[in-house]
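Board notes, transcribed. Complex of a protein with D-glutamic acid.
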Amino acid sequence: MDDRPIGMFDSGFGGLTVARALIDLLPDEDLVYFGDTGRYPYGPRPLDEVREFARQITRLLIDRHNVKMVVVACNNASAAALDALRFEHDIPVVGVIDPGVRALLAATRNHRVGVIATVGTVGSGAYQRAVRATRAPVHLQCAACPGFVEFVERGETRGEDVHVLAERLVAPVREADVDALLLGCTHYPFLAHTIGDVMGRDVVLVSSADETAFEVRSILADTGLVRRSGRGTGKGKHTFVSSGDVEWFKRLGGRLLGPEIDDVGSHQWD
Ligand code: DGL
């Protein structure tokens, strides 16, 4: 039993898709969410730089917020830093890539699957390796979608411009005849309406959020880290911190996540 909060982070608003799943599955747990909106997007940055960002945020979550676990709610940071963070810290560190792959493989019927993600994630080969490691007999087609994250961060989750971009960027996975498509960036579920329109009704869109939340729940149970106080009350406390414009984080975050965001703390990197 452990009353410390769960820490989680993303480059910005994307990890809120994972936060939603965590809050719904584990309503008693306290949560600290760090959105690195002052330094987004991570996708175009070199993996070494993203790894350093992930290290800084993880240290901040542990030192300042005393978290009992860290959820890397960002595919790009998971691809760049998960191994390093697990090596460097003795609290559990959970990423989104393996949970996403599990959900993807459970969804396919024709054994042709797709992953769309940022340039950094696709280029890292993390999904290609994770799918291969399962030894599942599937054909995987990946496609990078530069620009999607920026649309979400501006709050433009629908409309002609994002639709035109999606038509072009997801063409490789559409042409590969996949029947299940993993949204391999935690921002992309906010664009599911547009991506679903472009892919067509026969393709199942898969997000890593729920599967990641299930993994967090079983790790908490297996390692004796479940929260003790307030059990069964569903009154976990949710804290949000942004390295960018906190008013914007509050406004757009509230729209994307819901009423849990009522106050947002600020953190400025030196
Ligand atoms: N949500 C992050 C991810 O899952 C987006 C990375 C970015 O900022 O480009 O990869």
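The chain has twelve helices and ten strands. The chain has two domains: 6-95+209-266, 97-206.
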